[in-house]
Amino acid sequence: MRLPIAALALPVAVQAANYSGPLRPQVHFSPPSDFMNDPNGLFYDAKRDLYHLYYQWNPYELIAGNQHWGHATSRDLYHWTNHPPAISPSNADEYIFSGSAVLDRNNTSGFFPDQDDGVVAIYTLDTAEAQTQNIAYSTDGGYTFTKYTHNPVIDINSTEFRDPQVTWHAESEQWLMTVAYSADKVIGFYTSPDLRDWTHASNFSRADLRGEQFECPNLVKFAADKHVLFISVNPGAPLGGSGTYYLVGNFNGTHFHPETANFTLYEFSKDNYASQWYTDLPDRSSPISIGWASNWDYAEEVPTGELEDWRSSMSVPRQHSLTQVQGVWTVTRSPYDLSAVQGRRLPNHNHTDGVSVDFSSVQSKAIYFEIDISGLPADPAGEVRFHFSSPAGDHLDGGVVLDTGLFWIDRAGTQLYTAANNTDFTPLSNTSVAVDGGLAFAGVIDRSVLEVFADDGTQSATVSYFPSAPLDRLAVGARGLSDGANVGLAAWGLDSGWVV
Ligand code: FRU
């Protein structure tokens, strides 16, 4: 239910910013200025019908440091309002690292004697001496927080212990914290009746996941009565720098048991890290996540900094389900309901060698597109390519080779920043998709971020790229397809989520 505006009655401070730069994503969240990394504290406030997004923010510089919890809110996850930082360091020697936030409806914490909408944030306090878990509470719906006077709530005398994700474990009626012993590559589980006193429940270790440190774990319950443990690793992830794995299993209130020895790399590209899942969603909602659309290999040097005074955006909000692919439970993902920003269907232009859409008249230069290949024989031949281009000669390419199912995306043609600037900015993302009489994939392209969803949403890529002028044309072409094969393109302009 949406409350009338008057019922909100909150003295909400709004922070103005300029979102007009040609590299600024229009349907992806990016910070008002300076450097952003992980999403933090994602919770949905049903009372006010409002999604909160906090994030790691250095409000003073274009590189990581001075970590605060930046803050924004949205009713639809695409139109965001920026607010002043929600949690700030108390002195220059401490940093407010990543964490989560929960609604404490039943006042289990005792911080909220007179209300059923108190918010508790659980974060890592980082200092030169230690990383400890701390809490802060908000009586105004998540805009301002008071740090608990008896912090830290967990201190194990470690400098590598961070990123608490807290959820309510309904079956055992207690709070559950999932947290990383980062350098040990171990995930810890703690339980608490009140968010203040925490008891260690178990550890889960997976030293065989490639990468040096574990960060930002999230344990997510799916409707299939299964839990999925997402673990971000950095540096040394399989595609270089930072990346995220997930494992499907069961959680019994104290221990996580993976169903199989399998683990899956969440994406086949380099730019999706530290995803967080919304808490307090309405019961029947599918899980919703937002990830950081960058990579520690180059996040602090991409050209949006010098040119437009900001660095890094988030992924689009994604909705998820679990499905079986050849007997293996797999997480699906797709953009969360785009209707809040979806504009007009763009006309297709047919050419002898394919079909194109011109989106130069779409003010945001952001579009949603679907490409559908059908009518293929059992042994398909040929390939289909998609090609985004700008009037300045930039291009971003991709395609699928039909006999092998090789699906690729290549960002080498976007000219402002390439592997020549930083060899870790590798151009190619590859995977293999199922080609079974046909295939379909969809994507959102948004000035400097492309997200592609393939294989019925069981595979995805987030690709940051930096053109010298916005890409504004999409051409889809085919070569060597068998008779009867068909390639369809449908694209819609997207409206900006920012008032610029
Ligand atoms: C992951 C991370 C977290 C940490 C935060 C600091 O990107 O390194 O482990 O809490 O960033 O900004």
From TrEMBL:
<protein>
    <recommendedName>
        <fullName>Beta-fructofuranosidase</fullName>
    </recommendedName>
</protein>
<keyword id="KW-0326">Glycosidase</keyword>
<dbReference type="InterPro" id="IPR013148">
    <property type="entry name" value="Glyco_hydro_32_N"/>
</dbReference>
<dbReference type="GO" id="GO:0005987">
    <property type="term" value="P:sucrose catabolic process"/>
</dbReference>
<dbReference type="GO" id="GO:0000324">
    <property type="term" value="C:fungal-type vacuole"/>
</dbReference>
<keyword id="KW-0378">Hydrolase</keyword>
<dbReference type="InterPro" id="IPR023296">
    <property type="entry name" value="Glyco_hydro_beta-prop_sf"/>
</dbReference>
<dbReference type="Pfam" id="PF08244">
    <property type="entry name" value="Glyco_hydro_32C"/>
</dbReference>
<dbReference type="InterPro" id="IPR013189">
    <property type="entry name" value="Glyco_hydro_32_C"/>
</dbReference>
<keyword id="KW-0732">Signal</keyword>
<dbReference type="InterPro" id="IPR001362">
    <property type="entry name" value="Glyco_hydro_32"/>
</dbReference>
<feature type="signal peptide">
    <location>
        <begin position="1"/>
        <end position="16"/>
    </location>
</feature>
<feature type="domain" description="Glycosyl hydrolase family 32 C-terminal">
    <location>
        <begin position="359"/>
        <end position="476"/>
    </location>
</feature>
<dbReference type="GO" id="GO:0004575">
    <property type="term" value="F:sucrose alpha-glucosidase activity"/>
</dbReference>
<feature type="domain" description="Glycosyl hydrolase family 32 N-terminal">
    <location>
        <begin position="28"/>
        <end position="324"/>
    </location>
</feature>
<dbReference type="Pfam" id="PF00251">
    <property type="entry name" value="Glyco_hydro_32N"/>
</dbReference>
<comment type="similarity">
    <text>Belongs to the glycosyl hydrolase 32 family.</text>
</comment>
<dbReference type="InterPro" id="IPR018053">
    <property type="entry name" value="Glyco_hydro_32_AS"/>
</dbReference>
<dbReference type="InterPro" id="IPR013320">
    <property type="entry name" value="ConA-like_dom_sf"/>
</dbReference>
